Structures are given as structure tokens and as C-alpha cells.
Amino acid sequence: MIKQLLFHREFLEYTGGHGKVYDYFRHACAHPDWRAVIHLTATSVCEQNPWLALREHLAPSYQPQEAAALFIAGMDWATYPCDIPGKPVINLVQHVRHATTGHPLRQYLNRPAIRICVSQAVADAIASTRCVRGPVYVIEAALDIDSAVTDRKKQTASIFIDAIKQPALGRAIANGLAGTPSVSLLTQRIPRTDYLARLAEADIAVLLPHPAEGFYLPALEAMALGCAVVVPDCIGNRAYARDGTNVLMPPLDAMSILLAIGELLNDPHQRESLRTNGVRTSGAFTQRNERSAFHRLLEDIDSLWSSI
User: Fold this and answer.
1) How far apart (Å, rounded) are the C-alpha atoms in residues 127 and 236?
2) Nearest by Cα to 196 from 241, 240, 146
3) Most CB within 10 Å of its CB: which of 85, 129, 204, 209?
4) Which segments constitute the Glycosyl transferase family domain (predicted)?
5) What residue ranges define each of the domains in the chain, with the CATH number in brackets?
6) Alpha carbon of 30 to those of 15, 23, 289, 294: distances in Å?
7) Beta partners for residue 91, in sequence order
8) Rounded-to-integer distance, Cα 57 and Cα 289, Å
9) Beta strands of the chain (E only): which ranges?
10) Which backbone phi and psi does 242 adopt, to 5 degrees?
11) Are the beta carbons of 137 and 297 closer than 8 angstroms?
């Protein structure tokens, strides 16, 4: 018998967090014994919303009592205030902030759930609270890049600065690069396909995360697209970033980052070394690996839930 896995989202704009939930939605759809269904809130928008292409999987209302199991991420918990006895919950945890005292997400760690963390850093963070109820698994976040993007031609020494999360810092870096022939600064979200295209065309990618992230996917995407990557440490990139080997990891300040960029501009051999090692590293973070790990969890969900 096919079992229903119920998702919930308030989709106000495309974010990496929504993208990863969508990956898991597709993973569930690919399992022969499960059918993924999602309820989108009335406030959800259509632009860049990937679920709207799967209308047969849209639920008009959120009815957790009718599903075999629930998939919850972030503040989805607010729509499920009371536990239903015997109803398995899979909780995707995507950020170290779940462990931060006073953060609204922390209160949900004591709700029974089978938790999937997108990095070991996230798992370590929530474990440190000693209030997690249920087993915790690490499934490192996988890449999802359209093969058509990888065919774009790079311009030698071109620089792309992703400053969506750090616009002031990004502008300071761009100003410091005045006179450099090809610098592209991004301070606002754009459609994902456009974002990946700009990454793919860059020779050097400068990614500016928050100081603490769960799994910082843009830098790994840049590596997969053959960029020489500059990205400060943000906790969530430690699963793949190796300073001096596949990325440069200066401190999160304009002067340090400008020095790292200058180092790469002056040394094409180092750019090529980072590029080669970065592509090799990114090859381990595949959708196939992520899907296989999730399917194993789905197949063991009853015994996992009974252990809580």
C-alpha cells in the first residue's frame, strides 16, 4: 500500500531552505512505497515556486491526521502544534540556529521527531542543547545543478560577488576592485537559473555568508561550476571547504577578502588548482547519495519511530 508523506510550506520567495525541502519532496516521490503531498499556505507565491509544476501533489488543506507520516522543516512546526500519537515526524534541520537560546526554532527540539541534519555541524549544535527528542541523522546537503548551466563559457579573471547576505560588505569589496575589468556584484535575490548562470560564467567566485550557516550551498555550487572560490568560514561550509586546497577562506572582512582575490588574480596556477580540487570535492555531494540515504530512513521509519 502506498503511504502518504505530508509536507507543508509557506513559500514567499525562493531560498536555499525551500530548495532543499523540494529536493526531499522529490526524493519521497521517487520511492515506490511513498507518495509526497504538500500543502502550500494561501500566502505562498507563484514566482519560482517549484511545487506549482506538480499540481497533482498539492493538498488544498493541511490534514496531518490523514497522512502516514509528516515532513516538517523550520517553522512548519507551528502548523502542527499537538503531536498525534503514533504519527511519525521527519524533521529537516538546516541551520545551527536551531540550537540558539531564545531562537523560536529551539523550542521544537523537544518535540518527538526523526531528525535529518544537513551537516555534522548542525547535528553537533542541536546535540549540545541536550533537549533533542528522537534520533538524529546527518545527510549532507546535495547539489542540484542543471547540466545546461555548466556549459557556459568563463571569462578569464572575471569575478562574481554573492553579497545577498552581506550587501554592505559586498559593495566595499566591489569598490576595492575598482578598475578590475570584470566584476559582477549581486546584493539581491534573483531567479535561481540566473544566479547559477552568473556563477558559471565567473572565473573567481566570492561568496559572503552569514557568520554561522547550516550548510552553505552557494560555495559548493561555485566549486561544482568550476570557479576558484573565496569564502570565509561559516561553520556550515566545513563539510567541504579546505583552505588553500579547494577554496581560500579569509576572515569575513573587506581587506582580507580583497587580499585573497588579489592573490588569485596574480596566480593563474593557484586559480586552476582550486578549480580542479573544487570540482573533485563537489562530486561527492550528489542527489543520488542524498536520495539513497533518505530512502533508507523511510524504509526504517516504523522502527525508528517506535524507539522514541
Assistant:
1) 16
2) 146
3) 204
4) 186-278
5) 3-142+286-306 (3.40.50.2000), 149-282 (3.40.50.2000)
6) 23, 11, 13, 11
7) 72, 115
8) 24
9) 3-9, 34-40, 69-73, 89-93, 114-117, 136-138, 159-162, 183-186, 204-207, 228-230
10) -125, 105
11) yes
> Position of cell 507543508?
8
Contact 287, 145 (CB under 8 A): no
Q: 281: which residues sit within 8 A by CB, 6+ positions away?
A: 220, 223, 240, 242, 246
Instruction: Report the run of H or E that residue 223 belongs to, with start and end.
Output: helix 217-224
pTM for this structure? 0.92
**Which cell numbers hold the place of 36?**
509526497
C-alpha Rg value of the chain to the nearest Å:
20
pLDDT in tens, the chain (308 residues): 899 999 999 999 999 999 999 999 999 999 999 999 999 999 998 888 999 999 999 999 999 999 999 999 999 999 999 999 999 999 999 999 999 999 999 999 999 999 999 999 999 999 999 999 999 999 999 999 876 566 667 888 899 999 999 999 999 999 999 989 899 999 999 999 899 999 999 999 999 999 999 999 999 999 999 999 999 999 999 999 999 999 999 999 999 999 999 999 999 999 999 999 999 999 999 999 999 999 999 999 999 999 99
Q: Residue 172 class from Cβ within 10 Å (0-12 exposed, 13-18 middle, 19+ buried)?
A: middle
